[in-house]
Predict the 3D structure of the following.
Amino acid sequence: MTANPPNLTPAQVQAMELAAATQLGRFSAPELWFSTTQAVTAANGPQTIANTSPLNLTRPAESITILASFRVTVTVAPYTAVAPEAPQNFIQKIILAGQSNNFGGTQIPISLSGATAYAWGRMFQIEAGGGEYFISKAGGALTRAAQPGRPFTSAFDGTVATHDMIVIINIPFGPSLMPGQAVRKQSTSYLLQPSDWGNTLFLNLIIGDASAFGDPTGATVTFQGFGGTGNPFFAAHVNYALLGDFRNSTQRSGLIIRQEQPTTPNQTALGTTQLLTQLSHQITTSVLLKTGRVQTAGLTGGIDTLASLSDVQMEATQIIVDNTAKRNNSSNFVQKAYLERMFNTVIPEGYYPVTFVDGDNALLAYRGDRLPGGSQCNLVSNVITANAAQRQRVVQEYILGGPFPA
């Protein structure tokens, strides 16, 4: 602290600093929020698992962990093609929504596909920043699958066999930019606080079917619980922050928003400086552009599956504000190499982040909230490959409120 807050004695300030130093890094570790099983058939389309119990915020929450465990049995013939993001794409969408007292009305902090949520943290951390999964084929040893890289490949191969899998997806409520000590120091400003949300936060999971794993044409696919008993199992765990005496000083946290949206229209033809999306005028930490080709064969209606991911679909991707580039970029490969060095990671194929927080501090975020109302804040890119199946997804991670100067 550079100055004493009004009406606090030096002793009180010292006590607050001690509390911050000794207690902000303490967490409960994940605690079970809810769990359920869900019957799944090969072509039943998307199904919603609606949690009827609100998030218990007797303590402020730092993150949520989603777990799915299940068996996929393939008989008759193997999958014609396996999606690179199988099995994490089995969870088609993760949605957390509630009524915010601080920011008014319904807010949706999280609306992400399971595949994107799984890979998201990998852009900023070397290991399991977003998730991990384990697989046992034909009763063999349960093995931790390799982290997504370049290329992005799946340990699920779609062959005729039983495939037992456990998928774990970690979603922080604070900026997903830093491991270890940096998270402990900065996450307090973005906790989900009881005074803000009350009992209004609910989680919905939308799950897929056999076509969420790829093209099952020719195969007979059945779903069971892990090990072949019952139905697929889904659970959510919450990690709480234990703030101790410091808790009364952090009642108005900022709110991180991550909502995945398709570009409109899809970019399927060659083009220069194509508008991908207009970005919100908000305090922005990072923007993700996800590129690939959509699955066109064997897909059940309503299921969203990318048959491939690509690092060569787009070039010179950048944020342009009123004709000025906010991160001047002429080479996506060079920018990804730079960010891999800054975050000590391998950014997965098909994932291109434009980030302002490579200095490991959320306060470095771009102050889009200060833009005049008529300003244009756009994500643009050159499209350097052409294919009717090309698809793009965008996630703008932005902050409402938080510890930013007015």
